[in-house]
Amino acid sequence: MSLDIQWLDATAEDFSTHLNTLTAWEAVSDQQVLSTVQSIISGVRQQGDQALVDYTCRFDQRNLASITDVCLGIETLHEARQRLNINDEQALVAAADRVRQYHEKQVQSSWQYEEEGVLLGQQVTPMARVGIYVPGGKAAYPSSVLMNAIPAKVAGVKEVIMVVPMPKGVVNDWVLAAAAIAGVDKVFTIGGAQAIAALAYGTESVPKVDKIVGPGNIYVATAKQLVFGQVGIDMIAGPSEILVICDGKTDPDWIAMDLFSQAEHDEDAQSILISPDRDFLHKVEASIKRLLPTMERKDLIATSLANRGAFIWTPDIDTAVAVSNQIAPEHLELSVENPQALLPKIQHAGAIFMGRYTAEALGDYCAGPNHVLPTSGTARFSSPLGVYDFQKRSSLVCFSAESASEIGQIASTLARGEGLTAHARSAEYRITTKE
Ligand SMILES: NC(=O)c1ccc[n+]([C@@H]2O[C@H](COP(=O)([O-])OP(=O)(O)OC[C@H]3O[C@@H](n4cnc5c(N)ncnc54)[C@H](O)[C@@H]3O)[C@@H](O)[C@H]2O)c1
Ligand SMILES: N[C@H](CO)Cc1c[nH]c[nH+]1
Ligand SMILES: [Zn+2]
Question: For residues 292 and 5, what is the distance between their CA atoms, to the nearest angstrom?
Answer without folding.
Answer: 13
